[in-house]
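Task: fold both queries, return tokens.
Query 1:
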Amino acid sequence: MPSHSPTARRGFCKIPCSALLLSSRTQAMGILGLVLIFISLIAHGHTHGPDSCNHEGGLCRVGNCIPGEYLAKYCFEPVILCCKSPSPTTAKS
């Protein structure tokens, strides 16, 4: 039996470092994508938060408003709704 036999290395391959590095254009596109996602989360339209909903007499609900309530606006669009009960009408005599 030979004393010096080659050992098999499984699962290891040699990849040059240049192949692992992203180009500057790819890095810039990734950063631009993150910036756009961040801006869209901050400046999302029609979201006022629970304080605004509660101040105006509504309740924040997940999913759907209960029967007898209507969607007034969004607490956190599109999942959490600001639901209000219709105000009772007053009859004048």
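Query 1 returned. Query 2:
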Amino acid sequence: MNRNKQNTAVILIYIIGFTIGTISHSIDIIKMGLLGYTFAPFILNAFWSSLVFIDPLVIILLFINFKTAITIAVLVMIFDILFNLIFGLCTLNYPILLGLITQVPFGIFVFYTANHLLRSGSLKDYLNSKLS
């Protein structure tokens, strides 16, 4: 795989991951309504509901404000994993804990790649750069 293809693959993984998040939270809102996570404290309910807007925002920002997109991606993954893990363990909410099976590897990927991505000023710069 040449450098450009590797960089493209990294961006595609971000897009796929945040698209899955968008779809997941959209399905929840369709089923339960906005702020429908009533089983959780309001702050978690609001955070999880807000991801239906924040996840696609990350994707859009990849194209128009690359560094902001990567920063938000890192923050979303930190808080989503942390909140899901703490709430899931404290309440033994198995569906939330099961969600961590995919969230944690994606989060690790985001954390691992973020520093390198932040060295580029734009998506175009990153896609045309060589990996170091």
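Both queries returned. Flag for query 2: Residues 3-127 form one domain.
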